Amino acid sequence: MTGPDLLVDQLPYRIVRPYRVRFEEATGAESMRTAIYLAWAADIAWQHSTLMGFGRDWYSSRGLYWLVRALRIDVHGSVPTYGQAYMTTQVTGYRRIAAHRHSEVRSASGELIAVLEIDWVMTNERGVPTRVPEEMMKFVADSASSFEMLKVALPPMPAEAAERRFRVHRRDLDPLDHVNNSVYLDYFEEALEAAGDGAMLLAPRRYEIDFVAAAERDDLLVGRVWPIGVGRAFRVRRENGSEVFRGTVVPL
Length: 252
What we know:
The chain has two domains: 3-139, Thiol Ester Dehydrase, Chain A (Roll), CATH 3.10.129; 162-251, Thiol Ester Dehydrase, Chain A (Roll), CATH 3.10.129. It is built from three helices and ten strands; from the N terminus they run E-H-H-E-E-E-E-E-H-E-E-E-E. The chain has helices at residues 35-51, 56-62, 181-194, and strands at 14-20, 65-75, 84-94, 98-106, 112-123, 162-167, 205-211, 220-228, 231-238, 243-251. Strands 1-3-4-5-2-7-10-9-8-6 form a ten-stranded antiparallel β-sheet, with helices on one face. A hairpin with a 5-residue loop joins strand 4 and strand 5 (112-123). The chain is globular and about 50 Å long. It starts with 13 loop residues before the first strand and ends with a strand.
């Protein structure tokens, strides 16, 4: 799609919504934190689902939940403090227990700012992955469409990897009482800045992220960041060594 069609709903498969960068969502450089792209993506996904008849009551009555499993974000530009941008979302494929959403962030003129590819996994009340209901196939034109789920494999971590210890606070949690997936991007970027790699956050860049397990309130986490070629790797573990998160960032 080109021109005006970029910022117009294409129901039932795709919607577009405006978003504004609030003061507390911006950095000292007067641009939006990367984590906010993911917060927007989750919000617009719920708007799309609700518009199609799958609101929170529908999920709650069936004991079903969507969790972000993995994602890729390409950041091409930035949105300034109080600036407005437009985000799109559409489901592009299903697997037995998962769905893939493609989202784009654009300026009012249609300039591409960011692209997000997100793998969502459906779980039941016990947190166990479960089959996606057949009626949700209405989100895609081709119900047979599928995709390969993203996996992030990190190279061996050197002993000198920069380490940062931190505790999960209430403000980091979502309604499921787990660390919200967007918060891990803040953890990642804070680790980069602490390691002296803050300049990487100013360039066009690609993040690939794998959410391994859920961190909870008051967990003490250990994050380590280290170079991988021209990019950086980041791994978060609990004090007992169990892995929670892994990700990479490379220049585009």
